[in-house]
Design goal:
The chain is of the alpha/beta class. Helices cover about 40% and strands about 15% of the residues. A 7-stranded parallel sheet has the order 3-2-1-4-5-6-7, with helices on both faces. It has a 6-stranded parallel sheet with strand order 10-9-8-11-12-13, sandwiched between helices.
């Protein structure tokens, strides 16, 4: 993928708003949820046909070869690998996206790894404020870079987009001007999944018993230690716990998982094509995060008609609404009781239709509309 590759939307009309769309997180070893949501947003924006989108990546090979994180066709690569690129952006203010794209109307930093801009208007997506609110759950370098990026977003961005009201509130509390904040929530698409597809997946993954499901990147704020302990305390002899997602950082679940034996299934990274039947086959999604910027797995599960037991007082509550069960993420006894309820087939069956209807309110078309409005607001400043 050469830096001189043409834009994938070069056939669009010449007066279209031009956007340099930063996707350097696709070069990370663990791209994570921010990469998935950014790629889905890119495709939704591209489908509109009224933007000239140019993807922006880092130099060198990507550290994951997973097709789910394949950059869009025509993505331009900057001249440094991402680690050096971020230091160059923050310390020297050089090698911004316009060095690869040429002049554009907007540069959209889809994470708080914020690049310098020359003439373009800067739009930044702040997924969450964890680097300030929960610094201990990040690596030392990661926390430093992300905090610096948040500060740059506050100082330089014409518009800051947030996926949840909780993140907006956290930004206001941190000193972001409220008139520059925009709510741009994520979305999910329902996939028709047959009973045969579900059974085939369970056979392939060797998940024979009914199961409760957790999906995400394994890291401390996901609160998996509490989930595993609550599952142990619930004594659900005929229901397993499935944990799907790649290892992230600063979290070791081996000892507690080993004590639970074959009742816990650690799947690692789950291919995108497997997610829909994995969600659809679960008794419930169980999601006790201490904090979330949005909670995409909750919405994806609900789109498949799978109800959610989620963390009260977090952005997950904004997604789940009254369709599931919300428990304080620090309440071990409460989670133990909730898992016992969710393990019963009738619990999820009575909530399936409501969960699916709620998820249908979150569409990528609406997300793209809100994002383009944010671009236009930035250009008007």
């Amino acid at each position: 993928m050469a830096a001189s590759s043409p834009s994938s939307t070069s056939t669009q009309r010449s007066d279209a708003l031009s956007v340099g769309f930063v996707l350097t997180q696709l070069w990370h070893k663990v791209p994570g949820g921010t990469a998935s949501s950014a790629l889905k947003l890119y495709r939704a924006l591209e489908a509109r046909g009224d933007l000239d989108l140019i993807g922006i990546g880092a130099a060198g090979p990507r550290l994951t070869d997973t097709e789910a994180y394949e950059p869009p066709a025509g993505t331009r690569q900057l001249k440094l690998p991402y680690q050096l690129l971020y230091d160059t952006w923050q310390r020297l203010g050089r090698l911004g996206p316009e060095s690869a794209t040429g002049p554009v109307d907007v540069v959209h930093a889809t994470t708080t790894l914020v690049p310098p801009v020359k003439q373009a208007k800067l739009v930044v997506t702040v997924h969450d404020m964890f680097p300030y609110l929960e610094p201990d759950v990040l690596t030392k370098r990661g926390g430093r870079i992300l905090r610096a990026g948040i500060d740059l977003a506050k100082e330089r961005a014409e518009v800051v987009c947030c996926p949840s009201q909780q993140t907006i509130d956290d930004c206001v509390a941190a000193g972001f001007p409220a008139d520059r904040l925009r709510l741009v929530p994520w979305a999910a698409v329902a996939h028709e999944t047959t009973a045969t597809e579900i059974e085939d997946l369970r056979e392939r993954l060797a998940v024979g018993r009914p199961y409760l499901l957790w999906v995400g990147t394994v890291e401390p704020r996901k609160n998996l230690q509490l989930l595993l302990q609550a599952f142990a305390d619930a004594e659900l002899d005929d229901v397993d716990l499935v944990i799907g997602g790649p290892p992230g950082w600063n979290e070791d679940l081996e000892e507690l998982s080993a004590r639970l034996g074959d009742r816990v299934h650690r799947l690692g990274f789950v291919a995108p094509d497997d997610l829909a039947p994995l969600y659809a086959g679960a008794r419930a999604l169980v999601f006790p995060s201490l904090r979330e910027g949005f909670g995409m797995p909750a919405l994806e599960a609900m789109a498949q008609g799978t109800a959610v037991v989620g963390a009260a007082g977090t952005a997950i509550a904004e997604v789940v609404g009254d369709t599931g069960l919300l428990i304080d993420p620090n309440d071990l006894a409460g989670w133990t009781s909730a898992l016992q309820q969710a393990a019963e087939p009738s619990w999820g069956e009575t909530r399936a239709a409501g969960a699916k209807a709620r998820a249908a309110e979150f569409t990528w078309e609406r997300t793209a509309d809100a994002q383009v409005a944010a671009y236009r607001d930035a250009c008007a400043r």
